[in-house]
Specification:
The structure is a homodimer of 330-residue chains. With 330 residues, the first copy, chain A, is of the alpha+beta class. Chain A has two domains: 127 residues, PurM-like, N-terminal domain (60s Ribosomal Protein L30, Chain: A); 167 residues, Alpha-Beta Complex (Phosphoribosyl-aminoimidazole Synthetase, Chain A, domain 2). A seven-stranded mixed beta sheet of chain A has the order 9-11-8-12-10-13-14. In chain A, α3 links the parallel β5 and β6. The radius of gyration of chain A is 19 Å and the shape is globular. At the A-B interface, α1, β1, β2, β5 and α3 of A face α1, β1, β2, β5 and α3 of B.
């Protein structure tokens, strides 16, 4: 299961098997979306499959995730989603109303994100397979003009921004499974981040260096991937990281770190210092971005690592997610 | 299971649920690929998931199908595949060598089809949930210039061309499952059809009216969909349809009609009569197209139906596939 958790085992699988065999022609395929030139037009494309269990949970459902996750992967790669295609793998015996509910959720999420679903495919597998339904979604989009994003553009002194409180999605799913004797007033943060990303891009322009959405593996895994890719140190202040009390409490009870918990409606951005305040203000002025904040900065040491500084002046290296404490989160 | 078989139940699901809720903005979304305008460039896009069992079979495997099926959906929509993205849903415990074999099969098929795989996603589900692996593939491509395809362009008098013998893929899968006490020297026809399609397009130009690959549901279902969409009669001569002896024999034993058996490496084309011979010659002159033939023509009666004429001058209406005699064929 760890190979699908988005952490170290996933990265080994991708680096060891998929990159050399499948993606050899694509130098930057580890980002959330690839760029393809078609008749001189740069088209962004991304794909994701969704196997979340349970299918619906406070704040969202698999259909909504399948749309927002794909719209967001395009957004953080610097592209506006134009069209989605969707593949359903359905379990025989799935009640029609469950399917219809998820199809409606997809339609509503697509409308909210301003994107069209233009084609699809359906396969049915035997009862007992596929946990009622899996959905694979692919999105294509156009570049947001004026951006040049990538780990190689990150510089010491740059600021690290997060769009809002972390860990809501993963912890909501964990509690929704009902396997723990734990209740909390929590909702998934699933939502499109394109509006916030567009406001940020307008305010920061080329001072915006890099973006990603910290889904599987959480903020710690996403920042570790960036640290490895750019070779720099990402210093994050523990006190500055927004975490809701319910998420923090559940994490403490379960021995989990909020930095490893999945998010669906947040993104991380690296912005040059001279534009950091304007960039933050632009996100905060956008609906849903009110809780955005600067959580740290980029330095040179310790190289290729993420260092969390505590309130007492101490620090701890936070690694990628290892293993999978929370399978089937998206 | 019938809802995933590509026949009548699938069409009801698509027409009744997906079209009104999801694809309402897309009038021609029932073709094998949709068209999306990005900054003035027309991008063709198609998606498919693959759940074939067994994973490998004489002549191919799921990885190869996942590439060729997508390349072919673009080809018959009049587009050249430029890039693919791929989503894996893997069962926990899947041996690494099985995954590597399929990843290599995808890489080889992509190379043979001249297309790049540019991005991917991997999810892992519990043991018992995904029959080792499911693959969802999406392809984007550029239009082949000079073509104008669609059911509305089909006219009485047009000829119906098939690219080669039918039923090889479905019958190969059925026999590969080993559930029948039946052996035959059969291989799946999985292959890219783009070379043949390009030769046909060059030879026929705008006289090429319509193309499709008769996968799930077979030639009968694909022709019935066309007949319904254009409102005309498709007359097919039974004697002219190429079927290998092994496929014909197995169909007779099992009470199946070769016209309902799935194909993976064939396509159907409708060509105006004045270009039909040149079009056929162009396919036959292309590697793999030697066995192409004209199997019938378009008339006005019986409206919106497929009529198979027998050697004795009789005829029978052949309907879409009803139910699913062969689940999990691709």
């Amino acid at each position: 299961m760890a190979h699908g958790a988005g952490g170290k085992a996933t990265r080994r699988l991708v680096d060891g098997l998929f990159v050399p065999l499948l993606y050899s022609a694509v130098p930057d395929s580890l980002g959330d979306a690839a760029r393809v030139d078609i008749d001189g037009t740069s088209v962004a494309i991304t794909t994701d499959s969704f196997v979340v269990t349970p299918l619906s949970f406070p704040g969202g459902s698999i259909g909504e995730l399948a749309v927002n996750g794909t719209v967001n992967d395009l957004a953080v790669s610097g592209a506006t989603a134009v069209a989605l295609v969707v593949s359903f793998i359905l379990e025989a015996g799935l009640p029609t109303d469950v399917l219809e509910t998820e199809v409606r959720a997809m339609a509503n999420a697509a409308r909210a994100a301003g994107v069209h679903i233009v084609a699809g495919d359906t396969k049915v597998v035997e009862h007992g397979k596929a946990d009622r339904m899996y959905i694979a979604t692919t999105g294509i989009g156009r570049r947001i003009p004026g951006l040049d994003l990538g780990p190689s553009r990150v510089r010491p002194g740059d600021r690290i921004i997060v769009s809002g409180p972390i860990g809501d999605h993963g912890m909501t799913i964990l509690l929704a499974r009902g396997e723990l004797d734990l209740e909390a007033d929590l909702r998934s943060d699933t939502r499109p981040v394109l509006g916030m990303v567009t406001a940020l891009a307008d305010a920061a322009g080329p001072a915006l260096r890099w973006m990603r959405d910290p889904t599987r593996g959480g903020v710690a895994t996403t920042l570790n991937e960036l640290a490895i890719d750019c070779g720099l140190a990402l210093h994050v202040s523990e006190a500055a990281i927004p975490v809701r009390d319910a998420v923090r409490g559940a994490c403490e009870l379960l021995g989990l770190d909020p930095l490893h918990i999945a998010n669906e409606g947040q993104f991380l951005a690296i912005v040059a210092p001279e534009k950091a305040d304007a960039a933050l203000a632009a996100i905060q002025a956008t609906a849903g971005g009110e809780a955005a904040c600067i959580i740290g900065d980029v330095r040179t040491e310790p190289a290729a690592a993420v260092l969390v500084t505590t309130g007492y002046g101490g620090g701890r290296i936070v690694d990628m997610l290892v293993g999978d404490p929370l399978p089937r989160i998206c």
